[in-house]
Amino acid sequence: MTEAAIVPLLSVRKLTKLFGTFAANNGIDLEIMPGEIHALLGENGAGKSTLVKMLFGVLSPTSGEIVWNGTPVSISSPGEARKLGIGMVFQHFSLFEALTVAENIALSLDDNVPLSKVAEEAAALSRQYGLPLDPSAHVADLSVGERQRIEIVRALLQNPRLIILDEPTSVLTPQEADKLFETLDKLRAEGRSVLYISHRLEEVQRICDRATVLRHGKVTGACDPKSETPSSLARMMVGADVASVERDQSVAIGAVKLETRNLTVAARTPFAVSLKGISLSVRAGEVLAIAGVAGNGQGELFDALSGEFPQADANAVLLNGVPAGTLGINRRRLLGASFVPEERHGHAAVPALSLSENLLLARSQSDRAAFLSGGPLGLIRQGTLSDATKRISAEMDVRKASIDPPAGSLSGGNLQKFIVGRELDRQPSVLIVNQPTWGVDAGAASRIRQALVDLARSGSAVIVISQDLDEIFEVASQIAVISEGRLSAPYPAGEMTMEKIGLLMGGMHDGSNHPEAAHAH
Amino acid sequence: MIFEAILLTIITASTPLVIASLGELVTERAGVLNLGVEGMMIMGAVGAFAVAQMTGSPYIGVIAGIVSGAVFSLLFGFLTLTLVANQVATGLALTILGLGASGMLGESFVGIPGIKLPAIAIPLLSDIPFIGPILFKQDIAFYLSIALVLGINWFLFRTRAGLKLRAIGDSHGSAHALGINVIRTRYLAVMFGGACAGLAGAQLSLIYTPQWVENMSAGRGWIALALVVFASWRPWRVLIGGYLFGAVGIAQLHAQIIGQEFGIAIPAQFLSMLPYVATVVVLVLISQNRRTTLINTPASLGKPFVPDR
Asked: Where does the record place it (chain B) (predicted)?
C-alpha cells in the first residue's frame, strides 16, 4: 500500500474557535492516521482543550472543517462523537463516587444495554487490556489510577476508533504510567488511534508516533517526536527557548536552618495520612525537594512544618535552632520562616480580596510594624502597602488587568507568582513551598523556580514539596521521597534517577542498598 | 384486643410519615433539598378535604391531595431550579406559605365532619388470624405506602432512570456532561416529593382524623425530613424508621398511662424529642468517615445547578 492510499482517520482543516474576539484556536490543521498515537503538545492555554472539546462535540467550531474517515462531519454533541467512534478520557474524571464501577460505566452507554450485562462486559474488557477492575466496587474506595482505568474502560466499551486522552499521566506514579503505556500499545496494535494530550516531553517521545504542537491557538509544528530533542520540542511549545533554571553549583552551604526530629503526626481525619517519624534537616543554601505521589502525606507534612497544626513536642520542629513545634503559623513566621501552601484560592489567597489586602492578611502579624501603624486599631499604612504590592508585582512579573485587582481575577500562574513573591519579599531564612507550580504555565513556572533557587543561593533554606519530577530535578540540591507518611533519606540531586524515585514512591525505601530491587518489577 | 388496637393506631400514625419521607427521599436522591414538606403536606390535607367535601368522594379527595402537593412543589421547583434560588430558604418559605395558605383556604371547612376513607379488606389474606385484620384490612394509603417502598427501591437501584437520578444527586456536573437532563429530572423528583407529601396530607384529613383543623400536619413534615436522614436515603430504612417514629409518637400520647403501668414517668416532651435525637445520632455515625458519607449522602444535595458554567 502506498502512502497516498491511506485515508487519515481524522483530519482537521483550518479549524477556528472564537470566544468574542479572542481566537482560542486559529486555523488548526491536524491529521491522525489509523493506528497511530498522535501527541498534542502545548502549554496551558495553548488551545489544546478547546480543540479537543470541538472534536468531542462539547464546543462547536466558529469555522473550519472536521473530516472523519474521508467524510466531512459536524459533531454537535458528545453522543454524536461517540457514535462516530470517538472516545474521550478526561483529565478531571467525571465519575460518580457514590456509585459502583459498573453503574458508572452503564451511565455512559446507550440506554438499550441492559444493566445486568454491563458488569460482565466491563470485567471482560478490563482483563483484555490489562486494566484490572472490580465492577461492584464503589468509586469512592478506588485510587486515582483505578479511577482512570474506569474512564478508559468506559471509553473502550463504545469500541472507538479514536481515543482522546487528556493529560493522562498527570495523576499517576511512574509505574502506573508504564501500565498505561502498555495499554496504549495494545490499542495501537488493534489499529485504533490515540490522540495523546500532554506537556510531558519524555512521555511524548517515548510512546507517540507523531506530534502536533500548539501555541497561542496555532499549530507551531508537526513532527516525529522521536527525532526531536526535548529542547527542540520545548522551543516549539513555548516559542522561545525556555529559560532553564540557572544554578550556581558552588553555593556555600551554611548552618542548619530547619530541622525536624522524629516528627510524628496522627491522622487528623480518617482520610488523612499520618506522618511517621520524619527527620529532616535543611541547611542554608540548600533546596530540599520532596517528591511523591499525591496523597502520601505532603499536605500533612506541610501543615506540620507551617504550624497550621502545631505539634505537642516543641523539639519536633526547630527553626534556626529554636524549638518551634508547639508554635502556630505566625509565631513561626516571626522566627524567619515563610510558607506557600498548595491551594492558591482559599488557602494562600482570598480570591475576593485584592492583592494588597491578601498581602496584608499574610503579613499583618509577622511584619506588623511595616504595614500597620501603632495603636489598638492597627491602621493600615496604605502607601507602604501599595508600594510593596507594586514591588512584588514588578519583581515577579505579575501580569494583571489593573493596579490592584482581586486575587481571584488573576490566572493561576500570575497569582502564584504574586504569592511566592509576597513571601520572598520578606527575605525569609526558611521557605517551605507545597506544589509551587501546579497548573502554572511554563513561563511562570520557570520564573518561580528560578526565584526559589535564587533564594537558596542568597543563604536561605528552601523545601519544595512537588509531584512534578521535572521541577524537582530542576531546583533540588537534595531529593527525598515521601510515601505513606514516611520520608526517605535525602539523596544529592546528582545521584538521583527517575527509576530510583519511582521505587521510593512505591515505598521501597531501601532501594539504593539493594540493587536487585531495582529490577524487581 | 388492646394490642391489635395499638398496632392499628401505630400503623395509621406511621403511614403519613413513611409516604412523605419516601417522596422527600426521591427528591433528595436527585440532589434537591426541599424543606417545604410540612407546607406541601398541609396543602395536600386541605386540598383533599375540600375536594372530598365538594364531590362527596374521598377517593377523588385523595387524588386532589396528591395534585395539590405536586402543584405546590412546582412553585419550589420553579424558584430553586429555574431561578436558582437558595433551596434552604425557599423550602422554609414554602412551609410557612403552606401553613398560612391552607389555613385561609380551609377556613370554611373548620368544624365540618369529614368523610373517612373506608378500609379495603383483601379477600382471603384478611382472614388470617391476627395479622389479617392488621395488615390486610387497611385503607388505600397504607397499601400505597408499602407499594411505594417496593417501587422506589426497584426504581432507584434496578432501573436506568433511577441510576441517572442517583448520578445527578451525586454529581450534577458530571451527569450534565454525560448528557443527562439535570433540570428536568429534578423537576420530576421535586414533583414526586410534592405528590407524596400531598398524599400524606390527604391521609391526615381523610383517614387519621377525618376533619379539617388548621395546622393539622403538626410537625409531621419535619419528622419526615429527619426520617430521610435517619434512613440514610434508603427506602427500606424509611419504612422501619417511619414505624419507629410513629410508635414513639403514639407512646407520647399515652405517656401518662405508660408511666402508671410501668411505674416510670417519661415526660411526653422527651418522647417527642426522640426522633430528632435518633436522627442526630445517625448523622454523626454517617459522618464518621469519608467513605460512609460519600456512599450514603447525595453529594450535590442542596447545591444549585447552573448548566452553562
From this structure: Cell membrane
